[in-house]
Amino acid sequence: MIFLTEYENGNFLLLKQSGQPANSYYEALQNRESTIILTNSSMQEINSTVISSGNERTKILAEGILQVDGQILLHGNALDTVSMDTKLCLIWLDLDLNITHLKYYGVDNEEEIFMSYCVNHQCNYVFAGEYPIFSQNQKLVFIEVDCNGKMINSCHTDQLIWHPDIVFLENDQSYAVGDKQYIFKYGIDYNQISITQPELYQYFFPWGLPVKINDSLYFRAGTAMGSVYPPSWEISRVIFNTDAEYSDEYQIVIPDVADIPADKSAISFVDQSSDIYFGGTSNGDEGPFESKVTKFALQKFNLGGTFHWVNLYKTVGNARM
Fold first, then answer.
1. CA–CA distance from 4 to each of 19, 177, 285 (Å)?
2. Does pTM top 0.70 for this prediction?
3. Rg (alpha carbons) of the chain, rounded to whole number
4. Cβ-based burial of 250 (10 A; exposed 0-12, middle 13-18, buried ≥19)
5. Which of 109, 206, 278, 320 could join 222 via S-S bond, C-beta 3.0 to 4.6 A?
6. Per-residue pLDDT reduced to its tens digit, 37-86
């Protein structure tokens, strides 16, 4: 499972990927498929649809649910198996999970992939991605579309990047783009404003999508080396502000095994005053781990500093959050 959202009548929509383990995203586009599933409140399946382009030439891998409002809108990436080009893909479905249409975005032969997005001041979706996918020196690219799928803007930069994520900073109408070393700040015209290397990045490695707390604070999940001997990578979280200042690092420490946060959104809460849930996969790693027996790790805490518990939940063999 890579994405879960509440639906009407207490039901849930979840998005999952399945297929052969992949050592690269290019392999995943070729060998894996995504399925959207409607379940009841007990997680029993009601309906499902495999996300497909409808032709053998184009492979699609859905990565997230953007919108559920009279229709369902998914985002993902598409691979042309003849030209080997990749593009951003938006997928529209009706409420019965029938695919009504698809749309592709990007420049031909630039080999772009997009994993992260935010919503800006005009309620447009802004995707941050990297290109070309086959290069050792991938660069940052933006694509902005409105809620109806109309292309608003795109910008290919010369900034080297690795697995970018993006948040929209409402207080100064700018974008903060993070990778595993720097935070890059861009204006709404996609001109670069600043580059920051947080001191915490010496041992903290971001993972997944940032989560907004309020207009000036954000959660970021990641991994950090644990203090228990022998040391291993542990699920970690930090809080950062609009000046890219980091604080309040916490870990889920499960001795003897390496742990990773949930792939997309590892943190869930209702508002600032509520309890917060933070989760990931225990005994997981960054590459395929089909031979490992994993567990789901879940931590409950609040912003006041109260830590409630950490629980481990059995999975079916090698499942990953």
1. 19, 24, 21
2. yes
3. 19
4. middle
5. 206
6. 888 877 788 888 999 888 889 999 998 888 888 889 999 999 998 998 99
